[in-house]
Amino acid sequence: MLFLPGLEIYPGKRKVFRDRQEIQLTVKEYEILLLLTANTGHVLTYSQIYEKVWGDFPSGNENNTIGFHICNLREKLYQAAPNAPFTIRSVREVGYCFEIQAEK
Question: Computed over its alpha carbons, how large is the radius of gyration of the chain?
């Protein structure tokens, strides 16, 4: 089980919770979230994400595919936790990074 500020992730069960409420994610959304949170603070390239989540080599159109899933993932996470202390930051032309904001 992974505990992050605002989230509980259960890798064996493929479930994500916010305040004991399950956040319904697709398989790809869940796998992307798990990959990003396992690499918190590090930028993962589109190619790295595609290879790990889809298990295939990038063919050139992976940016749109990944962007689509990230958009849906962000919407679901932020809807469940609008004031959560984390974000999925886009690094233009490179990839994405899961970041936890420092407490103020």
Answer: 13
pLDDT value at residue 47: 94
SS3 label, residue 57: coil
The two three-digit tokens of residue 86, written as one number: 């984390």
Give the C-alpha separation, 16 to 79, whole Å.
13
Q: Which long-range contacts (CB under 8 A, 24 or more apart) does 75-79 make?
A: 76/23, 76/24, 76/25, 76/29, 77/7, 77/18, 77/23, 77/33
Where b means 16+ CB within 10 Å and e means fewer, 94-103 reads ebbbbbbeee
Q: Residue 83: which pLDDT band, with cuts at 50, 70 and 90?
A: confident
- Place 15 in a pLDDT band, splitting at 50, 70 and 90: very high
